[in-house]
Amino acid sequence: MSEYTQIHFEIRDTIATITLNRPDALNALTFDLMAELRRAVETVNQDTRARALILTGAGRGFCSGQDLKNRLPDGADLVGTLMEAYYPGIEALRQCRVPTLAAVNGVAAGAGFSLALACDFIIAAQSARFIQAFSRIGLVPDLGATYTLPRAIGRSRALRLMMTGEPLSAATAEAWGLTAQTVEDAQLLDAARHWLQPLVNGPTQALRKTRELVNASEENSFEAQCRLELEFQQMLRAQHDAKEGGAAFLEKRKPVFKDA
C-alpha cells in the first residue's frame, strides 16, 4: 500500500512528480496533504535519481486553497498550528535539492496560488486561473504569498490581485512574467518535462546554490552578496561538475554533469 493517500508521487526518468490527488475537492489543502507533500520532497532530497521536480494537480484544477472543512475553529492557535502543519511543506519546496516547477492546470486559488509560487518556475495550461481570493472573505494572503508574489510580478500588480481578488488568466500571467510558458491543457505535463530538460542535464548543486544566492540577495548588502557568491564559487570549484564544465568548455564539447 502506498504511504500517500492525498498525493501521488513518482520518480521517472530523473524527474520527480508530486500530484495533489484530491480531485473531487479541487485538490484543496489539508493537514495530511501538506505532511505528505513534505515527505515527498524529503524523498526527492535523498534520492539522487531525481534531478528536477514537478508539482501539479489531479483533475480539473491545480489547487483551490485550504479545505474549509479542515479549517481550525475560532479561538484555536492558528499561527502555531499552521506554521507547524503548512509552513514546512512550503519551505521544503523553496529549499528543494533540485529545480522545482509548478504545472498549473485550472484554478490555483488562495493557498493553492501560494503553493505554486513556492516553486522555482510555473508553467500554465490555457485553462489556468490564478486567484488571490483572501480579500473576498475578509482575510489577508498567507503561506508566503505577500513575500513571493510581489517579487514575481512587482508590488503594484501583486497588490491589485490581492486587494481586488480578480482572477489572473494564463495569458496575462505569462505576459506579466509570472509563468514561463502557456500550453494547451493536454500538453501540460509533457511540456513541463520538456521545459525542465536543460535543468535536468545541468549542474544540480550549482543550480541550487544559484537559488540560494537569489533568495539571500533580498536581505544582503552588496558587499555581503559578493562575498557569498565567492564562497559558493570556492566550494563548487572543488567538485566534479565545475571541473567537468571547465574541461568541456576548453575541449569545445557538451559537459556531462553528475553531482547531485
Question: Your description of this structure?
Answer:
The chain is α/β, with parallel strands linked by helices and 260 residues long. The protein folds into two domains: 194 residues, 2-enoyl-CoA Hydratase, Chain A, domain 1; 48 residues. It has eleven helices and nine strands. The strands form two sheets. The protein has a six-stranded mixed sheet, with helices on both faces. Strands 5-7-8 form a three-stranded mixed sheet. α1 links the parallel β2 and β3. α4 packs across α5, α5 packs across α6 and α9 runs antiparallel to α10. The radius of gyration is 19 Å and the shape is globular. The model has no long low-confidence stretch (mean pLDDT 94).
Compact description:
The chain is built from 11 helices and 9 strands. The protein has 260 residues and is an alpha/beta fold. The strands form 2 sheets. Strands 1-2-3-4-6-9 form a 6-stranded mixed sheet, sandwiched between helices. A 3-stranded mixed sheet has the order 5-7-8.
